[in-house]
Amino acid sequence: MATPFLRSLRELYPDAHIAALCSRLALPVITGLACVDEAIEYILRPDLRISIRATVGILAGKKFDLAVLLPNSFRSALIAWRASIPRRLGYRRECRGVLLTDGLDPEIRTDSEISLQLARKRVRNLIAANQIVSDARLLAHGAGWQIVEPGKPVRPVSMSTWCKNLAKQGNFQPVPTIDYYLALTERLGGKIDCKKMFLGMTEAERSEAQEALQSLHIDAADPYLLIFPGANFGSSKCWMPERFAEIASHVADPKGDFRAHVLIGAAPNEKSLVDAIFAALPSDFNASDKRYRIQRLSSAAEGRGVSLGAIKELVRRSRLVLCNDTGPRHFAAALNTPLVTLFGPTDPRWAETFYKGERILSIEVPCGPCQLKRCPIDHRCMRGLTTQMVLEAMRQQWSLGSAS
User: Fold this and answer.
1) Do 279 and 372 fall within a single domain?
2) What was the pLDDT predicted at 288?
């Protein structure tokens, strides 16, 4: 989501040396981008935490003129300040305003947004106490909200001014992250002409992806679905493994309407999630006589798996990507791959892709979007997304893949 900002920054400073300071995980995302001249990795301590002193030493030696801080962390501002970078631009958050020379104030949620948040919290508490039914909903009423349940009296939800003011502390209005970053370029005098995300690719990444497909016995002409069932944010974002298994079985069915291979990708710490998907598959899903197979990306290249850089190319080649609100979603949007995204607890406004080839599926629930990492009740926002709903969206998007 930072790539539109980087494009705009390059247009503003065509002759500058632009370096990106990032974690090791983000390096493959930077790789291949023509608008970045250098990628600098955070220096880590033996305990794998960022070494501020060592990172400052690297930056100070390069004598940068300007630091633009995309993270909102205090640490990122402290590093730029200690590296004696004369101009430091970022948002005034996390008590770091004193470390910035140019600061922007993020927009705070409105009173109505705060009231809605508090009403959703009230609904979660009532659901947890088994005091309301599953199809309850919230309706705006004057300056407050009402909980409406079929056949039951309306429950008014009123919030005091003190309560709303307290909730405003550090409670920022949801805005697309792409816009949030582009506002920093605008502050520098740059233009915002394009919000399209993009990615670069190296020959090594393309070769690795090709070798991975060959090791999985997928030919260049074979269509495949890429599923990413995890989410680094937390378990609340994840759709049910058994439903991903139903989707995979349907897509790989030689008598079905997709007739394609299925590849399932996940981070190493999401292995149990992938295991649960495979445990829910029919016992003969990969029998020797099956034309289309369901496979883990981690089994490619004789079990070595694939790098994040190669996943870019695998996403680009895929007929369709199905995922939760997670990182590979943005790969698909940046690479113009048809996409179906399952949204539950997170507000889509934060992660707007501005990509016409994406189909977002979500259902309205009275308790969300809650932005919680783990659901404290019954995960109804994700359980309400049925397999049939997802398959229907996939059918529509599948035709986009054939057109491309």
Assistant:
1) yes
2) 62
Give the pLDDT score at 330.
Answer: 96
The DSSP secondary-structure symbol of 273 reads H
Whether residue 197 is contained in a domain is answered as no
Nearest to 176 by CA among 380, 347, 375: 347
In the numeric block, which tokens belong to residue 31?
A: 């790789």
What lies within 8 Å, CB to CB, of 149 at 6+ separation is: 132, 133, 135, 136, 155
The kind and range of the H/E element at 81 are helix 74-82
- CATH code, 183: 3.40.50.2000
More confident residue, 355 or 403: 355
Does any domain span residue 192?
Answer: no
Cβ atoms of 67 and 85 closer than 8 Å: yes
Q: Using CA atoms, how far apart are residues 148 and 151, in angstroms rounded to an integer?
A: 9
**Peptide bond preceding 223 in cis form (omega within 30 of 0):** no
Mean pLDDT value across the chain: 93
Q: Are 138 and 123 in contact (CB under 8 A)?
A: yes
Among 382, 387, 386, 392, CA closest to 359: 392
Query: Rounded to an integer, what distance in angstroms lies between the CA atom of residue 114 and that of residue 165?
Result: 9
Name the residue among 280, 244, 276, 282 with its Cα closest to residue 263: 244
Number of other residues whose CB lies within 10 A of the CB of residue 90: 26
Domains contained in the chain, number:
3
What is the chain's alpha carbon radius of gyration, rounded to the nearest angstrom?
Answer: 23
Which range of residues forms the domain containing residue 275?
A: 203-403
Model confidence, pTM: 0.93
In angstroms, how far is CA 139 from the centroid of its own chain?
A: 29
Q: What is the mean pLDDT of the segment spanning 44-71?
A: 96
Q: What is the band of 284 on the pLDDT scale with cuts at 50, 70, 90?
A: confident
Q: Quote the pLDDT of residue 402.
A: 63
Higher pLDDT: 86 or 131? It is: 86
pLDDT range class, residue 163, cuts 50, 70, 90 = confident
SS3 299: helix
